[in-house]
Amino acid sequence: MKYFLAVCLAMVTLSVNAQRLWADGFVGALNYQGDLQDKRFTFTQSHLSGGAGVTYDFSDHFGARLHLLFGALSADDKNGRNAARNLNFKTSMFEVQAALKYYIMPLNSHLLTPYVFAGLGVFHFNPYTYDTTNVKYFLRPLSTEGQGFLPGTKQYALTQFSIPAGLGVKLSLTDNLNVGLEMGLRKTFTDYIDDVSTTYVDEFLLLSERGPKAVELAYRGGELPGGGPYPAGGDLRGGARSLDWYYFTGLTVSFRIDAGASKAAGFDSKSFACPPKM
């Protein structure tokens, strides 16, 4: 008898677990805030991005998710307040995120429910630019602010932690399909997503340590008509007091995984009952 009850319990558990697991997809705009884009939120210079993942709902109000995000970030001084500096960058962006979700109203009993989320992420970036002859250069090896050769400086890591947090709303189309909108910020612990943070390094020191291309791409005001000379070492290049952020805004879709598997196997959690013992 006890083995029979254990099998029944296992069948119900498998059915319930299958109904709590969702496959997620999303597509939208990815953007950043930093030294080349100081607006707190804007769609200017944003890039198409997307990703996928899974969500497991522990209850009607709490869930956990694991998501992968792919996209790009970029900005150009020509579109900001510091046009005379004339810097620009672009980077691909890859993020892995684990987060907890709180549904303000349970989705199972409401057509529309808002939610909030927060968690921990790891992201990878690698800023680059193009020179006047359209040749691509990754900026980190150029040590444009003296990273790695000035006393007390070191190169920034291209893989960093972030704290993702945000909010969204889900619309239940069917028992097994939801669509929604989401906006999520990522607080980072680096100021070098755009390769700009502190001060200019002395022009001749940078030339001797990293070569003429590093000098050319550390300050590009000279490329502009009437542009000024390379700034003096120690002059402000960026704002190190404010770290870089990036954020995603977009559409989401979620499918219940194996929604029909339990019914096909006769395990429907809403109607399942153990057959009478023979």
Structure in words:
This protein is mainly β and 278 residues long. It has one domain: Porin (Beta Barrel), CATH 2.40.160.20. It contains four helices and ten strands, in the order αβββββββββααβα. It has helices at 2-20, 203-210, 212-218, 261-264, and strands at 21-33, 47-57, 62-76, 88-103, 112-124, 128-130, 136-138, 159-174, 177-188, 245-256. It has an eight-stranded antiparallel β-barrel. A two-stranded antiparallel ribbon has the order 6-7. A hairpin with a 2-residue loop joins strand 8 (159-174) and strand 9 (177-188). It is elongated and about 65 Å long. The termini are close together. The model is unreliable at 1-18 and 261-278 (pLDDT under 50).
Number of helices, counting only DSSP H or I runs of 4 residues or more: 4
Count the E strands.
Answer: 10
Helix amount, in percent?
Answer: 10-25%
Reading off the top of the CATH hierarchy, the class is best stated as Mainly Beta
| N- to C-terminal distance | 11 Å
Overall 3D shape: elongated
In short, what is this structure?
The chain is mainly beta.
List keywords for this structure.
8-stranded antiparallel β-barrel; 278 residues; Porin; two-stranded antiparallel ribbon; 10 strands; elongated; 4 helices; disordered C terminus; single chain; mainly beta; disordered N terminus
What's the SSE blueprint?
Elements: H1 2-20, E1 21-33, E2 47-57, E3 62-76, E4 88-103, E5 112-124, E6 128-130, E7 136-138, E8 159-174, E9 177-188, H2 203-210, H3 212-218, E10 245-256, H4 261-264
Antiparallel strand pairs: 1-2, 1-10, 2-3, 3-4, 4-5, 5-8, 6-7, 8-9, 9-10
Helix pairs in contact: 2-3
